[in-house]
Amino acid sequence: MRIVVGIGGGIAAYKACMVIREFTKAGHDVVAIPTDAARKFIGDATLEALTGNPVSATVFDGVPEVRHVHVGAQADLVVVVPTTANLLRRIANGAANDMLTTTLLMATCPVLLAPAMHTQMWENPHVQHNVARLRENGITVMQPDVGRLTGPDSGAGRLPEPAEIAEMALSLVEEKATYPQDLAGRRIVVSGGGTQEAIDPVRYLGNRSSGLQGAALAACAAQRGADVTLVLGANSLPYKPAGVTVREVMSARDMQRDIEDELVGNTDAEDAQPSQNAQPADVLIMAAAVADFRPDAVADVKLKKGAASEPDRIDLTRNPDILAGVVASDHKPRVTVGFAAETGDADTSVLELGRAKLQRKGCDLLMVNEVGFDKTFGQPINGGWLLGRDGSEQQVPESSKRTVAQHILDATVELLAEDSSR
Ligand code: CTP
User: Fold this and answer.
1) Catalytic entry in 86, 93, 207, 382
2) For the domain bounded by 2-174, which CATH number is listed?
């Protein structure tokens, strides 16, 4: 694939090098187009060494080849990283006053803009107006991350992780992903990862969940405009999704407490973030692999063999069923989504087990998928069936966890619309 990486003049310009690296590692042909301001942050030599292509920095480079026209026309994907407030303005207004903006005007392929700027700039109504306009015109503007900025302060406006930018950019082409703003104004709580149930200070009972499906759901919901909290258990995520509030938990009971806080909009919770947590949630998506059992008792000190404390058995107690509890409660959000990770057995298929689980849990949607030693857990792909409480059954083809997340969110949006029209 031919990818154009445009680079804006902000301090995060150095991270564009990492994004280029992600693309070249995956075998793509990259051309870098820095703006004049970006060239004050990174040198052409760095970009040429990383891409293996000459930098096209001005419209007067490669004049006989008419580069300002053909680089954009031949691109399969354009990514602008970082997109400054000034670049957002210029692109939204159809500017054509340098190599990057002329290239963008010529491009008919998917375009991803990854903004990075100070929080106050990002939240400024002029900037938000430009973002909305770009999105209306079919350009994907990534939600910036929340975190440490260039100076001592932190907030929204941080550039998302380079790996996330690359993954999302490729999803626009390879999976034809789109991110309509159809979850704007909604609060969504997603759980992901696995719980760990302590045996002693060193050991625990756990499971093989990677957190990838929960993170993909949280990232896509945030990109579709929702205010998202990810309640995250043990995981092996390469990065935390941008623009999402993450609450990390260990045990099933910790997870239950944080989910309940989030569902009711409890601002008294110890680690609650008041701006994000003040209204009840509209949706709960339980993608976490919650341990069904925990040891009866947790030893205060490490259990040692040969010592008096050496156990000859570990007795287990049943954990609360978080999803079933929420469904039966008075704070059930408008839409509840569960997952069923099943292996199936000689008598019962994965789908039959899923149908029975949907009845048992009472949730609105249930994503059923087959798991095994080398299937789904920790793998980038997933697939199965999305079952609805109304009896609908939609097959979800094997695809990336981001695409599976999009299927689930499409069905969620439909249910939210039905609910509001009642
Ligand atoms: N779940 C939950 N609380 C639990 C166990 C599971 O909220 N204590 C949620 C999971 O997050 C998932 C759904 O319930 O969305 C189904 O999880 P799964 O582990 O497949 O099912 P179980 O309820 O544990 O049933 P079983 O072990 O009998 O298959």
Assistant:
1) 207
2) 3.40.50.1950
